[in-house]
Write a structure and sequence with these properties.
Elements: H1 9-16, H2 21-24, H3 44-51, H4 64-78, E1 85-86, H5 88-114, E2 122-123, H6 124-132, H7 146-163, E3 170-171, H8 173-180, H9 189-200, H10 210-215, H11 228-241, H12 251-258, H13 265-277, E4 285-286, H14 287-292, H15 294-298
Antiparallel strand pairs: 1-4, 2-3
Helix pairs in contact: 1-6, 5-8, 5-13, 7-8, 9-12
């Protein structure tokens, strides 16, 4: 959260504990990675899927030799029945485990910041006061861009109230998880769509045009050639996203775009990794086959990803 000016110490203290701005935005679907799944241009998607998004960030501290050694230990962990093979079911379970752990660790981190009275719950007042400071009039007069902060407060309150299923203005751990990660909860889908519309619909007309759609993904720079994927996205907008062909995306069309139904990304990724690694095509992979393709699982260039592999094996 960036402040252009601070008029009070209390606001500084409040903002210090706020959810980082990048986490305010809802992930548009519960995918395994924000990277494109395109092995021709790198394995970042696979790394984050296999290790988890946060854990994947520190892997560049390891040499290739260290990476492969640590990966071998992870493979032993994945092979639950200890038969020397990693099956689809075992790999699927592991990837789901890594994604759940990312969410749990993220909630743990913020829970300690917001549960000020340590009662095992987080009230709206606790969240609001910790995030925005103890303002009685909520006018943000000491901040230059106060309209933005007032808008953020309204947005946060709407999301908090939706997550608060019993309406007592106090979030249990599950409700607070829904607040931080609404994309993971079916009953939060309306908020996911509403916030996405609010982010992309820059002119506030209640719908998204092609320029707003592309502008949310890509900003051109002087003299820069437009990437091919941008043109592909333009086609996707007109051919697939804009189902009624009126030139805009309304809330229903946005819902179909960002909430694509019951897609098991972990299952798809497990199938993908086995397909790419299973040299003898017996539908299961050995440690040898995995290590022969180690950079697909955990990175490259002394690798870019893998906090899992910098932790002790028994911590995973």
């Amino acid at each position: 959260m960036l402040l252009r000016s601070l008029g009070s110490f209390l606001f500084l203290v409040g903002v210090a504990f706020a959810v980082p701005a990048k986490e305010k935005r809802v992930h548009r679907h519960a995918d395994l990675s924000d990277h494109a799944h395109d092995d021709a241009h790198g394995f970042q998607y696979d790394h984050e899927a296999f290790l988890g998004k946060e854990e994947a960030k520190t892997f560049d501290q390891l040499t290739p030799e260290e990476s492969k050694d640590k990966l071998a230990k992870i493979v032993e962990r994945i092979d639950v029945d200890k038969d020397g093979y990693v099956t689809h079911a075992e790999l699927h379970h592991w990837i789901k485990h890594r994604q759940r752990r990312y969410i749990e660790e993220n909630v743990d981190k913020h829970w300690k910041e917001y549960d000020q009275n340590k009662d095992g719950k987080i009230s709206w007042e606790e969240y609001k006061n910790t995030t925005y400071g103890y303002y009685l009039d909520e006018e943000f007069d000491d901040v230059d861009d106060k309209a933005t902060y007032k808008s953020m407060l309204v947005r946060d309150e709407r999301r908090f109230k939706t997550a608060d299923r019993d309406g007592d203005s106090i979030a249990t751990r599950e409700e607070f998880t829904a607040f931080l990660h609404p994309e993971e909860f079916h009953y939060m889908q309306g908020v996911v769509v509403q916030e996405t519309m609010g982010d992309i619909d820059k002119n506030g007309d209640g719908k998204i045009d092609i320029d707003e759609y592309i502008g949310d993904m890509y900003t051109s720079e002087d003299g820069e050639a437009v990437p091919e994927w941008v043109e592909t996205e333009r086609k996707h907008f007109s051919e697939f996203r804009d189902t009624n062909k009126d030139g805009y995306l309304d809330a229903t069309e946005v819902s179909h775009w960002i909430l694509p139904g019951e897609v098991d990304h972990a299952d798809n990724e497990a199938k993908h990794l086995i397909h790419e690694t299973d040299t003898n095509k017996d539908d299961k992979i050995t440690k040898k086959e995995i290590l022969a393709n180690w950079n697909m699982f955990v990175g490259s260039q002394a690798t870019n990803y893998g906090e899992d592999l910098t932790k002790r094996h028994d911590e995973l």
